[in-house]
Amino acid sequence: MFSAVVFDLDNTLLDRSAAFRAYLNNKVDDHDLVDAAIQKDDNGYTTREDFFAWFAPQIGEEPKTCQAEFLSTFPSFFKPNEDRLTLVRKVAESYPIACLTNGGSRTQRGKLTASGFDLVFGDHVYVSEEVGAWKPDRRVFDAVIEGSGFDPTKTIYIGDNFQHDIQGAMNAGWQACWVSLGRERHADDHFTIETIEGLWELL
Ligand SMILES: [Mg+2]
Predict the structure, then answer these.
(1) Ligand 1 centroid to 119 CA: how many Å?
(2) Residue 108 Cα, ligand 1 centroid: separation in angstroms?
(3) How many domains does the chain have?
(4) 63 CA distance to ligand 1 middle (Å)
């Protein structure tokens, strides 16, 4: 069925939503502002510039300073999850693995280190800022194939964002598995699991 497994990072292996909420709660007491900021952030898909231009003035900070502080502190809100580390280590016993993540190099590498996944993936990490292309652009998927030597038709990509992860991977000729997180969508050209723990049954 497949011979290599590539993972998305945020909200697939790591609970970015929980980490972002923790960052906000650490920063402000106003629950309405925390909720509004979570909306504005759109799971990280709003650019950091746009987000901090909106958020910083509301807490009396300067956007650039606030963003710089976020970039250096956000990774510390990610903690190792032993069950998920075990899951990916287990997958790695049977398949070559890699991680492909959209985002800035410093933040994504910081999250990998804070969560312990840096040791699980080793050198097999592809960050879009480093590659110079962002999912769903197929160039970033092609860069993984080039770097790893995987056969794209036998590589499965596992991610939570339908457009960026699932459509992006399939457009690059990969197989795909959508981590639905309870959302619904009906299609039979890809696998669906509700959370990453569902991977146990798929592999
Ligand atoms: Mg994701």
Answers:
(1) 20
(2) 12
(3) 2
(4) 25
CB hemisphere CA count around 66 (13 angstroms): 20
* One domain, residues 41 and 106: no
What residues make up the domain containing 160? 4-14+80-202
- Residue 186 predicted with pLDDT over 80: no
Instruction: Say if pTM beats, i.e. exceeds, 0.85.
Output: yes
Domain final residue, candidates 59, 77, 95? 77
Report CA-CA distances (Å) from 66 to 52, 56, 62, 82. Answer: 7, 6, 6, 31
Give per-residue pLDDT as tens, 84-125: 999 999 999 999 999 999 999 999 999 999 999 999 999 999
Query: Rounded to the nearest whole angstrom, what is the distance from the C-alpha of residue 163 to the centroid of ligand 1?
Result: 11
Q: How far is the CA of 114 from the centre of ligand 1 (A)?
A: 17
CA of 60 to the centre of ligand 1 (A): 31
Cα 8 to middle of ligand 1, angstroms: 6
Task: Please indicate, yes or no, whether residues 123 and 95 belong to a single structural domain of this protein.
Answer: yes
- Distance from the CA of 61 to the center of ligand 1, in angstroms? 29
- One-letter amino acid of 66: C
